[in-house]
Amino acid sequence: MNIAVTAERQSEENMILDAVDKFLEADVRPYAHDLEARDEYPTKIVEKMKALGLFGCLISPEYGGLGLSSTTYAKIIERISAVWMSVSGIVNSHVIMASAVQRNGTEKQKAHYLPLFATAELRGGIALTEPDCGTDLQAIRTTAKRDGDDYVVNGAKTWITNSYYGNCFALLVKTDPNAQPRHKGISLLIAEKGPGFKVTRKLPKLGYLGIDTCEIFFEDYRVPADRLIGGSEGLGLKQILGGLELGRINVAARGVGLAQAALGESVSYAQTRKTFGKPICEHQAIQLKLAEMATRVEAARLLTFRAAEAFDRGDRCDMEAGMAKYFATEAALENATEAMRIHGAYGYSKEFNVERLYRDAPLLVIGEGTNEMQRIIIARQLVARNPV
After folding, report:
1. Which member of 130, 298, 368, 372 is catalytic?
2. Is pLDDT of 9 > 90?
């Protein structure tokens, strides 16, 4: 890539990030606290995101998207999460669905669906997790049996983001429950809402409020066979795992944003709160906390960008994405906790943002594969990439 092209792309990225910053300051920050407190879906914010093209940020321009790199996408998610993390989840689930079609779909599927995903006329996410299987996706029990020109789906999914207000999902199913190894019986369908697709309830949560996270039940739900992503059965797990690498980069970026928000709140508060005749930022105990918090943010950000750059190159990056997700989300959890301790009783009050950060952070170490699983992935890849 020559210098002129690099400069042009950098200029484009700066314009997009500037537009996102303005949107966040005008349309999200003033309303986030009250919407979150009421656990109210941010309808007007979603409409603004549609207008900005954020739902098509990784979709190729030939299909009406912005065609951004995942590195730029990570920077966008970091910024959103620093203001209100729930909003980033509305985008992320949709982007993973769109990426699954863009990377694995047939030409007909791409031509039909990607323009609709880019405008968010069709908007949704991924339906993977089931009541009795979380990280072990090969254990799913939702079945899709071929019946003429359709698949008939029966089963249940849970913890599905965008499931109430969304209308289209990448749905992971068993097309051959008896296949061995198990992954050869798993497929991925483009599932639009219709008869037999039932959202049964919205799940109550500690944090991550304002976003619709629900249970779904399928009863003789019919999906046209031409919506089998890629056109061949048995490829669903492979197809979605590539999307989960992107999802883990997204969650890492959320971790960076939340950790940055906790740091920012703490630095500001430490300069205004006084004890023993001076601002608490002059006390060594607080200085040590702030220094550790700032270092965590920078290290998490660099790991996240490294993983995103590997994804953009098309390299295998499950280890890099796992490292970024693991470290950045732990940084978010630690920074949120330290921010509460720095704020003292005020950090425990719902009047301050620190309390929300403290409730949102635990989700990050659990979602998109627990951090225990990330460490196993990292270790396995270390051994595989460095054989003796």
Report:
1. 368
2. no
Q: Which CATH superfamily is domain 124-234 in?
A: Butyryl-CoA Dehydrogenase, subunit A, domain 2 (2.40.110.10)
Check: CATH 1.20.1540.10 for 238-385?
A: no
Residue 7 confidence (pLDDT): 67
pLDDT of residue 3: 54
Residue 353 confidence (pLDDT) above 80? yes
| Residue 259 CB coordination number (10 Å) | 35
Please tell me the distance from the alpha carbon of residue 154 to that of residue 220, in angstroms, as a whole number.
Answer: 6
Please enumerate in sequence order all residues whose Cβ is within 8 A of that of 75, keeping only pairs 6 or more positions apart, or say none. 13, 17, 253
Domain boundaries, the chain: 3-119, 124-234, 238-385
Position 52, amino acid: L
Answer yes or no: 368 catalytic: yes
Measured CA to CA, the distance from residue 135 to residue 147 in angstroms comes to 30
Does residue 107 carry a pLDDT above 70?
yes
Name the CATH superfamily, with its identifier, for domain 3-119. Acyl-CoA dehydrogenase/oxidase, N-terminal domain (1.10.540.10)
Nearest to 125 by CA among 170, 190, 189: 170
Tell me which residue of 171, 159, 154 sits closest to 131, measured CA to CA.
Answer: 159
Q: What is the pLDDT of residues 79-105, one digit of tens each?
A: 999 999 999 999 999 999 999 999 999
Over residues 232-260, mean pLDDT: 93
* Cα-based torsion angle of the residue sequence 36, 37, 40, 43 in order, rounded to the nearest 10 degrees: -40
